[in-house]
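Session log. Operator J.P. requested a structure for one protein chain; no other inputs attached. Running the standard single-chain path with token output.
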Amino acid sequence: KGIQELNEALKKLIDKFDFHFHFIGPIPDGFQIQSPQIKYHGVISDADKIKAILQSTDVFVLPSHSEGMPNVIIEAMASGCAIMATNIGAVNVMVDETNGWLIPPLNSAIIEQTIKKIIKSDLKTIQYKKEMSVKKVNDKFLWDKIILKEITYIRNIIEG
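Structure written below.
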């Protein structure tokens, strides 16, 4: 999931900038950075707890090596997060410059540069990207919209 590259970037940033970073999921002890700026929540199965953490953050970060179309990005967008993610799989269908930052995979230097850029961004820019995430979910990723697109697609095939 890009934890090694993310850790390399975070280690270079924690002493230089004031920010907080939350990890959700099974991060082995050997990969955990000891800093008051970084919190490890571990595996959380309670959807309300995950939602609360997402809603308390500004940017969701997913520097994966491989993905399809990760639901976790849509969940973070619906929770009002701007998104920083690697441009793999169908991530670019969900994330673009309006609601986040797409980066190439396997590059800790670019992760570091992008996080630094996010930290230095003005609040208006971050707020806009957060609002655009919610708008994208409402416009493109709600089940009623997806079902209508599928019905239209099938009708077009049937009608030739």
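Operator note: Residues 44 and 50 are 7 Å apart (CA to CA).
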